[in-house]
Design goal:
By secondary structure, the chain is an alpha/beta fold. Helices cover 34% and strands 18% of the residues. It folds into two domains: 2-193 and 371-386, Rossmann fold (3-Layer(aba) Sandwich), CATH 3.40.50; 200-369, Rossmann fold, CATH 3.40.50. The protein is built from twelve helices and 16 strands. Helix 6 crosses helix 10 (338-350). The mean pLDDT is 94.
C-alpha cells in the first residue's frame, strides 16, 4: 500500500505523530506539506523566510526548522509543496499544481489523503479523486465562516468527488451526514491522538515578567473562540484571587472592546503568533487552560494541553467536551455563560489539590487511550476500503 498524505502547515501538530506511527508500522507513506507564501506560521512551523523558488522539494529546504524532528520522522519521506505566489491563477501556481499532479500519477499512489477541500487550481488534483480520502477537521463550519460562499462551494465539490471522508469525532457524524446529504457508509470516524511533538522541544521563556500563578488561553483570536467571555469571567473573580494572572496568547484581530482587559493589570495579552517552543513554556507553567468557545467541532488546543498534562475548562459545544471527564480531567460549562465560567475558574483556583489530581488522571488515564498505533490501524482499514 502506497500513500500520499497531503496537508498544510496548520495541521502539522496532529499530522506528525500520525505519519510517525505509519512509518513505525512500515507503511509506505510520503508526507506532502503545503507551504503557502501568505501562511508561513502554524503549529510546529515558524518560517521567517520562505524558500525563494516555487516547486516540490525535499524537506531539507527547511532543514533548520525540521532538525528537532529528525529522530521523530523519516524526513526523507517528507516533501514541501512550496507556493510563492498568492494568486491561484498565477502561472507559477498553476505550474506547481500540474507538477504535483504529475508526481502523484508517476508515483502510482494507491491512496491520496488530503486534509482539506481543495481550492481553485488545486482542484486539478481531483483528476485522481477516485483514490482520495478527505479529512474534515471542521465538518460543520465555525460561525465566522458560515457566510463564506466560496468555502461552501469547495466543500460541496469535495463531498461530491471524494469517495471517503474522515471525521475526527463521533459527535458530529449525524449532523455532518444530514446537512450535506452524505451516506454514512462514506464516512470513517476516528479520533485525534496525543500531540506529543510539543513534549520533544526545549521550551523558550515568553513571559517578560515573573508570573507564579496564571491560567492560560492560547490559539488564534477569532470571534467563535469567545475570548471576551473569558475576560469578563476573570474580571469577576480577579479581586478574590489577586495573585493569579490570566494569560491570553495568540495572534489575530481583537474583535471586542479592549477596555475589558486593558483595565485589569492581572491580564497579560500576547497578541501575536506563539511559537511552539514558547507554547511549551506557557503550558509548563500554567495552572490550567480555558477554551471559552461559542461554537466548535473539536480542538487541537485540548490535545496539546492534555499532552502537557494540563487540565482544562471548556464549553459544551461540538465535540469539545469529549476528552473531559468532569472533576477528573477538567470542567465543562455552557457557552457564553460568564457566571458559570467564573464559578468554574474559582473552583479550580480554590482547589489546587483537585487540579493536581486532574493532572495525574490525564497522565494515567487519558494518555494511554491516545496512542497513535490503534488509530493508524483504523486508518489502514479506511485505505483498504478505497483500494
Amino acid at each position: 500500500m502506497k500513500i500520499a498524505y497531503i496537508s498544510r502547515l496548520g495541521f502539522a501538530d496532529c499530522d506528525f505523530p500520525l505519519i510517525r506511527e505509519m512509518q513505525n508500522k512500515s507503511v509506505d507513506v510520503t508526507y506532502y506539506i503545503q507551504c503557502n507564501c501568505w501562511g508561513l506560521k502554524g503549529t510546529l512551523f515558524n518560517i521567517k523566510k520562505q524558500y525563494h523558488k516555487a516547486g516540490i522539494f525535499p524537506s531539507t529546504i527547511y532543514a533548520d526548522l525540521l532538525e528537532p524532528y529528525k529522530k521523530f520522522l523519516d524526513l526523507t519521506k517528507v516533501k514541501i509543496i512550496n507556493r510563492t505566489n498568492a494568486s491561484a491563477y498565477h502561472p507559477s501556481t498553476i505550474l506547481l499544481q500540474l507538477k504535483l499532479l504529475r508526481e502523484l500519477i508517476k508515483e502510482e499512489y494507491d491512496v491520496i489523503h488530503i486534509t482539506y477541500p481543495l481550492e481553485k487550481t488545486e482542484c486539478l488534483l481531483y483528476y485522481l479523486h477516485s483514490k482520495m480520502v478527505l479529512t474534515m477537521h471542521d465538518p460543520i463550519p465555525h460561525s465566522n465562516n458560515m457566510g463564506n460562499r466560496h468555502m461552501q462551494q469547495m466543500r460541496k465539490l469535495a463531498y461530491h468527488l471524494v469517495p471517503k471522508m474522515v471525521l475526527l469525532n463521533k459527535t458530529m457524524l449525524e449532523e455532518f451526514c444530514n446537512v450535506n446529504n452524505i451516506q454514512r457508509t462514506r464516512v470513517f470516524v476516528t479520533k485525534l491522538g496525543s500531540y506529543d511533538c510539543i513534549s520533544m522541544l526545549e521550551p523558550i521563556k515568553i513571559l517578560s515578567v515573573t508570573v507564579s500563578s496564571y491560567i492560560l488561553f492560547f490559539g488564534g483570536i477569532s470571534p467563535y473562540k469567545g475570548v471576551e467571555y473569558l475576560v469578563l469571567a476573570f474580571n469577576k473573580i480577579s479581586e478574590k484571587f489577586p495573585d493569579v494572572r490570566l494569560v491570553i496568547a495568540g495572534g489575530g484581530r481583537v474583535y471586542f472592546d479592549k477596555d475589558i482587559y486593558e483595565k485589569n493589570n492581572n491580564i497579560i495579552f500576547i497578541n501575536r503568533y506563539i511559537d511552539i517552543r514558547e507554547l511549551a513554556s506557557l503550558l509548563k507553567g500554567c495552572l490550567f487552560t480555558v477554551c471559552p468557545y461559542k461554537d466548535a467541532t473539536q480542538s487541537g488546543v485540548l490535545q496539546t494541553s492534555f499532552t502537557m498534562e494540563v487540565p482544562a475548562i471548556v464549553t459544551n459545544v461540538g465535540a469539545l467536551p469529549n476528552p473531559i471527564v468532569k472533576y477528573e480531567t477538567g470542567l465543562v460549562v455552557e457557552p457564553c455563560d460568564v457566571d458559570a465560567l467564573a464559578d468554574s475558574i474559582s473552583y479550580m483556583l480554590n482547589n489546587p489539590q483537585e487540579v493536581k489530581r486532574m493532572k495525574d488522571n490525564i497522565n494515567s488515564k487519558w494518555k494511554p487511550q491516545m496512542a497513535w498505533a490503534n488509530i493508524v490501524d483504523e486508518y489502514l482499514k479506511c485505505y483498504t476500503a478505497i483500494i
